Amino acid sequence: MRAALDHARAAAALGEVPVGAAIVRGDRVVAAAGNAPRGLSDPTAHAEMLAIRAAALALGQDRLKDCDLWVTLEPCAMCAGAIAHARIARLYYGAPDPKGGAVEHGPRLFAQPTCHHRPEVYAGIGEAEAADLLRIFFAARR
Catalytic pick from 48, 104, 120, 127? Predict the structure, then answer.
């Protein structure tokens, strides 16, 4: 989670919503990224999407079934869909997202009968630090 939190901080420094993600295989971080929709002018450039793309490229495969995803915020529907398509084995996330999350909130994508892959999900890892980053970021903009 440390790599994901570091990337979330870096994203915040660039004016992006502070969300970071890291793909881990065994004991090695294969790829990590922070949110970059504004910087890349790409609404799909969420931290999870960028990390999944980079990991797939680094490993030369579209299925990341032996990888874990660590992310600072509960993934949205787009990212949850990508996690399922990439066959991520385990998802660890920090802060819950009651408004935009799609794992334990909203559509609960992995619980849908049409979801073809369900990773193991572990919530609340680094939650306080991840939530603080978000709270501070949005407080400065209000």
Answer: 48
Nearest to 49 by CA among 29, 67, 76, 18: 76
pTM flag (> 0.90)? yes
Give yes or no for residue 88 having a pLDDT over 90. Answer: yes
What DSSP assignment string belongs to 68-121? EEEEEE---HHHHHHHHHHT-SEEEEEE--TTT-SSSSTT-GGGSTT-S---EE
127 is catalytic: no
pLDDT, tens digit, 9 for 90 and up, residues 23-44: 999 999 999 999 999 999 999 9
Closest CA to 88 of 139, 57, 48: 48
Token representation of residue 35: 């949110």
22: its two tokens: 């890291």
Q: How far apart are CA 53 and CA 57, in angstroms?
A: 6
Return the closest-CA partner of residue 91 out of 113, 114, 115, 59: 115
**pLDDT at residue 141 above 90?**
no
